[in-house]
Amino acid sequence: MIEHHAPAPPCPAPPWGGPATLPVRPGTGRFLVLAGVFVCAACGLVYELELVALASYLIGDTVTQASVVLSVMVFAMGIGSLLAKRLRWHAAGAFGAVEAVLALVGGCSAMALYAVFAWTGGWGGMWADGPRCLLVALSLAMGLLIGAEVPLLMELIQRIRRQDAGGAVADLFAADYVGALVGGLAFPFLLLPMFGQLTGALLTGAVNVVAGGALVLGLFRRDLTPRGRRLLLTANLAVLGLLASAAALVDDFERAARHAVYGAEARVAPRTGSEEVVLTGGSGGRPLDLYLDGRLRAGGPGERRYHEALVRPVMAGPHARVLVLGGDGLAVREVLRHRGVRRVDVVEPDPGVLRLARTDPALARLNGHAYADPRVHAVAADAFGRLRGTPPASYDVVIEDLPDPSVTDSTKLYAQEFYGLARRALAADGRLVVHAGPVASRPRVFWTVEATIRAAGLRTAPYRVPGPGAGPAAAPARGAAASRGPGDWGFVLAARTPPGLRPDPGAPRPATLTPAVLAADARAADRTRVAGLPPSTLVHPRYGD
Questions:
Q1: Which residues make up the binding site for S-methyl-5'-thioadenosine (predicted)?
Q2: Helix (H, G, I), strand (E, B) or coil at 263
Q3: Is 401 designated active site?
Q4: Is 328 part of any known ligand binding site?
Q5: At the topology level of CATH, where does 26-255 sit?
């Protein structure tokens, strides 16, 4: 018995335009497409890392900025992939246009973010200020464009030689992931140290537009009409010209932006690692300010009051052996003014800061040429690692003169584990003092520091000193107003037994910190107390809560 079946419906036409007519053999064509995937993936990751690094420098809180950039970008990549489905019929031209726009947006992203930070400051609100809004917009735009790349490249590679979807995806993703690896390594080890953030982004954009344009105009030019080829070539040349012009003007742009941020007397030290060191003032009667990555580290008219408040109470006890964490030399200057100091070890993570503290005339004058004293021994090293290798009971005094813990790079130096190491390094009657940031504006951060020190087995005496509007700050500098700094400074004095909060009786005169003044400062701090805060640890940092 013969069964009769209805004729099968015709297969739908595939969404690709048939085999491409290439100027090279198919194998070579596939290799060139995969090479294009490799280059585009490397450029895309560099754009992501560039945004994270610059946003962390300008806005602070590396974890937050990385989370914002990566989450928004990954979300936008999914949307871009969906939108690219509508462009598969014109995959070659669409891919060339996407790469041209991505190169322009990604290449200029660092300059745009820095410009908004320098000339607009903030527009107010946690998520409503200019740099953060632009950061989200750039992440969204680049994510959409990067997300559109893979579907279009999939279409192009299938046009060279049709294969199963799994094999094509495997080839594309292999080239994509290897390119991401190269871009991720090139950014910190090549682009950033050799070219800096702005020029590095512009150079990446130039590589991106050349790779995308060469792939389409060289390999798939017959997929485009003559008018389409002319338009794409013109667009690529225009983008390349804009990037080259921006690169030629980048030094003038950086100078103008720094003047907008720091004032006209900004002096930039050579970059060491990824940190930017800027000195302003120091001549003509203007106070000297030292900025690290846009944050005021030391200086201003209240600098001496700050360092006296930091150093003099902790020196009211044995102080022959002193460890200072922070290398501008200003705390060391105050330490050396006390009788009985035999040795001062200084640990500073940035060798550029130590070099400036020794050689810059204004800063060396301000720190009293402390590094010329034979009792001072300075080393450029990570403070956490240095304390781990310090023998027990090595110091009578440990002074933590560091950026406050709301700066993410410093969070581990305000963790319970770090204070445990500091406790081990102290002699039985030794004392520790910590700069814990402004109290009035960030009481939760301040009292988290205090709770963390107590959790490490130390007894504490917190105190708050009013500031005249200058001093080490956590907020990034924005214009000449940046030198105002916080309205107060918060400190925590600690020891194994309850530390008496009093200035060193042998401190040099005149002394503005009397026992009565310090008692009032302790009461002022206690009025802001936030009770019940858990300690901050390496695996659970609390300062962003």
A1: 348, 382-383
A2: coil
A3: yes
A4: yes
A5: Growth Hormone; Chain: A; (1.20.1250)
